[in-house]
């Protein structure tokens, strides 16, 4: 019960960030602009994105509950806030503003932040850290998709 409130808080923040990011997308993956881009051959079908982000945000929220329980600090709160900002703003930069290069910078920064979360807290929460693996793998895929579009359009 002690972990339920923080879990609900992180689920609301993380899924709220996804919802806000989706709202900023301006039709996102269904837009004419995006569908007409030369996309990477390994671009997954659209339904995979929803499944991936749902899984990622559930795992990330559980991870955050344990991390904040063991290592709450101003630095950690700022890193988490920065992660939320980068995750939300990428949608706007890439899909709404069509700024592919800046999108690559944003998603690369997000990737660095999440990998930093993993490696800097691995000893703090040990096996719970592996809940970040879906997020890390997805960001590597997403970064490669963004890079492919940048360099092949």
What would you say this structure looks like, in words?
By secondary structure, the protein is mainly alpha-helical. It has one domain: Ferritin. It contains six helices and no strands. The chain has helices spanning 4-23, 32-35, 46-71, 74-96, 100-125, 133-151. Helix 1 crosses helix 3, helix 1 runs parallel beside helix 4 (74-96) and helix 5 (100-125) runs antiparallel to helix 6 (133-151). The longest helix has 26 residues, at 46-71. The radius of gyration is 16 Å and the shape is elongated. The N and C termini lie far apart (51 Å). The model has no long low-confidence stretch (mean pLDDT 95).
What are the salient characteristics of this protein?
mainly alpha, Ferritin, elongated, TspO/MBR related protein, TspO_MBR, membrane, transmembrane helix
């Amino acid at each position: 019960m002690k972990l339920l409130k923080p879990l609900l808080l992180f689920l609301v923040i993380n899924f709220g960030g996804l919802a806000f990011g989706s709202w900023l997308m301006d039709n996102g993956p269904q837009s004419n602009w995006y569908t007409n881009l030369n996309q990477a051959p390994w671009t997954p079908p659209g339904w995979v994105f929803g499944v991936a982000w749902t899984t990622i945000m559930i795992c990330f929220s559980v991870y955050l509950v344990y991390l904040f329980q063991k290592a709450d600090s101003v630095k950690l709160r700022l890193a988490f806030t920065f992660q939320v900002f980068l995750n939300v703003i990428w949608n706007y930069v890439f899909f709404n503003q069509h700024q592919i290069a800046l999108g690559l910078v944003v998603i690369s920064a997000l990737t660095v932040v999440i990998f930093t979360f993993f490696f800097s807290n691995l000893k703090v929460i040990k096996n719970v850290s592996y809940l970040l693996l879906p997020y890390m793998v997805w960001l590597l895929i997403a970064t490669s998709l963004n890079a492919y579009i940048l360099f092949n359009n």
